[in-house]
Amino acid sequence: MSRTLIWLRSDLRLADNPLFQFSTPPEALLCVYVLDEVWLTPMPGLEAPRIGPARLQFLWQSLIELRGELLKRGSDLLVRIDDPVEAVVALVDEHEIDEVRVRADAGWEERQATARMAERLDGAVSLSRHDSGTLFDEASLPMAIADLPGSFSAFRRKVERDWSVPGAVPAPVTLPSWPAGAPRGFPPLHKVCGRAAAWAPDRRGNFAFAGGEVPGWARVDHYLWENGDVARYKQTRNGLSGAYFSTRFSPWLAQGCLSARQVHDGVRAWEAEHGANDSSYWILFELLWRDYFHWAAWQEGASLFGRRELPAPDDAVRAWCEGHTGVPFVDAAMRELATTGWLSNRARQNAASYLIRDLGGDWRLGAAWFEHCLIDYDVASNWGNWRYLAGVGRSSQPRALDVHDQAERYDPEGAYAALWEASRPAPRPEVS
Ligand SMILES: Cc1cc2nc3c(=O)[nH]c(=O)nc-3n(C[C@H](O)[C@H](O)[C@H](O)COP(=O)(O)OP(=O)(O)OC[C@H]3O[C@@H](n4cnc5c(N)ncnc54)[C@H](O)[C@@H]3O)c2cc1C
After folding, report:
1. How far is the CA of 210 from the centre of ligand 1 (A)?
2. CATH architecture, domain 1-132
3. Atom of ligand 1 nearest to the CA of 237
4. Fewer beta carbons below 10 Å: N end or C end of the chain?
5. What residue ranges do the domains of the chain occupy?
6. From the CB of residue 42, how many other CB atoms can be counted at a distance below 10 Å?
7. Do the two domains 1-132 and 133-165+206-303 of this chain adopt the same fold?
8. Is 352 a pocket residue for ligand 1 (Cβ < 6 Å)?
9. Mean pLDDT of 255-279
10. Separation of 284 CA from ligand 1 center, angstroms?
11. For residue range 132-162, what is the model confidence (pLDDT) as tens digits?
12. CATH number of the structural domain 133-165+206-303
């Protein structure tokens, strides 16, 4: 009997997921997600786990949603908290699996884990890696990863010359049955982390993200079709507050509840009906940035994280994390980040630039703090954007911003800074 194990990571969806596409389906299928136990332990220096309560809650919601979709198709989901390689290898042995499928993740640790898995399986069980979630596959990039240009603009010019993004593939209608006797289900979130189970975003953020494919699609429909915000994106994208100034697709893209191709298809369908404009193009332009950082992470490997050991944060860096620098524009951003798990791109850039330029802090501490806080944390986008702003590696020009100028330009009335003043009461949310 042929048995396949799908090892899920940041690809928690059924539609447009190559792991669930079979030319000849196996007779039995085991779908597994293993939360790396290391992510729950405090990072040295910052005393915060790599996965904070906001993202952990979103992750659990995404897993619950995915399990529901799998059950509808005759399959199921097993979730464990463990060393992912050890847990998957044990399942392979116990349930006589003959194929393991996994996403070709760009993150160095994920790649190391995949390599360790290949060693442990030692050719006796086949291990297949699949590109997934990005606009382009490695094979359809107009250059080898090793030749990825040092600048985004050069990358964009090359991919736009022959822009052909494959269409998203629908979800399978049915799936092979669960192997007899194999475990299923997962621990309730309150047993994994009480803070994550109880976590709720500060209502000043005006938005509550819910994990999973269906809530992700609801946001896409809302943004593209119901509100038509896509028509104004280029003018609004530098906004700081509110539910509609940018797409807010990032958490679903980061956990893989949505793929970039699905968003691409949605934007193209909107353009077919309403006509393309600068704003619809600009959403695709941002998705290209995402692809660029993904492929850059492949190229950079372990050096994405910098080479030296992470220093302990000093008092100034701690104050930055807590939103007590004394600069209202920066403090507002850091408070919003810590209490909602999300931040606009403009505020991320300013918060990061202030740490690097004004405090002289180590950019990697900032990246690690963002990793803890962000619901949409994505290894390539987070560490890539931090490196880019710090002027490390592929881009040697630091992109320092003057946060006072930026506050005058983007928050001229000081409304954003005032909203996140520590004592201000929270208004009712616009969207939930
Ligand atoms: C210091 C710093 C850290 C960041 N960390 C992350 C991260 O961990 N995860 C993450 O998804 N994004 C990260 N970004 C990029 C960007 O800020 C967010 O993707 C964006 O703010 C998410 O909001 P949105 O979905 O409304 O984006 P929109 O403006 O609506 O853009 C649409 C999509 O394009 C992609 N995108 C947009 N800008 C970027 C960018 N600069 N780099 C990569 N992808 C982009 C995202 O997938 C986003 O959902 C970071 C940026 C900075 C400056």
Report:
1. 18
2. 3-Layer(aba) Sandwich (3.40)
3. 29
4. N
5. 1-132, 133-165+206-303, 306-419
6. 11
7. no
8. yes
9. 97
10. 12
11. 999 999 999 999 999 999 999 999 999 999 8
12. 1.25.40.80
Is 377 assigned a ligand-binding role in the annotation? yes
Instruction: Report which ligand 1 atom has the smallest distance to the Cα of 379.
Output: 8
Helix/strand/coil (H/E/C) assignment for every residue in the chain = CCEEEEEECCCCCCCCCHHHCCCCCCCEEEEEEEEEHHHHCECCCCCCECCCHHHHHHHHHHHHHHHHHHHHCCCCCEEEEECHHHHHHHHHHHCCCCEEEEECCCCHHHHHHHHHHHHHHCCCCEEEEECCCCCCCCCCCCCCHHHCCCCHHHHHHHHHHCCCCCCCCCCCCCCCECCCCCCCECCCHHHHCHHHHHCCCCHHHCCCCCCCHHHHHHHHHHHHHHCCHHHHHHHHCCCCCCCCCCCCCHHHHHHCCCCHHHHHHHHHHHHHHHCCCHHHHHHHHHHHHHHHHHHHHHHHHHHHHCCCCCCCCCHHHHHHHHCCCCCHHHHHHHHHHHHHCCCCHHHHHHHHHHHHHHCCCCHHHHHHHHHHHCCCCCHHHHHHHHHHHHCCCCCCCCCCCCHHHHHHHHCCCCHHHHHCCCCCCCCCCCCC
Instruction: Judge if the beta carbon of residue 293 lies within 6 A of ligand 1.
Output: yes
pLDDT digits (tens, 9 = 90+) for 342-356: 999 999 999 999 999
- The length of the chain, given as a count of residues: 432
Write down the residue that tokens 């982390």 correspond to: 193
